[in-house]
Amino acid sequence: MELQDIQPPLYTLGIDSLYNTNTELRPEQIALNEAYDREMFLPNLRSKRNVLLSQTDWSQLPDSPLSEEKKQEYVVYRQALRDLPSTATYDNLIWPTEPS
Predict the structure, then answer these.
(1) Threshold 0.85, pTM exceeds
(2) Read out DSSP for the chain?
(3) In terms of residue numbers, what domain contains 19?
(4) pLDDT above 70 coverage of the chain, percent
């Protein structure tokens, strides 16, 4: 099933479902939601990864207050972030831990 095949009424429950806790998803809604999630997995992962990388850019600047040992920890962390799109799967995503 391709993302362009998804029709909004099938995968969108609408505002009423926010207040109705008895709303159950139909099997086709579940399948379409999963297809959409899988389609958006890598773009969403890359987007979050890019934010995390930009938040640690400071650690690699020459005037960073970090010791060389801490800078190296950030180098390893940032490389793990860069490698994530090629190593992560939809069913197994483990984000690297930022150095403390």
Answers:
(1) no
(2) --GGG--HHHH---THHHH-TT----HHHHHHHHHHHHHHHHHHHHHHHHHHHHHTGGGGSTT-SS-HHHHHHHHHHHHHHHHHHHH-BTTB--PPPPP-
(3) 3-87
(4) 77
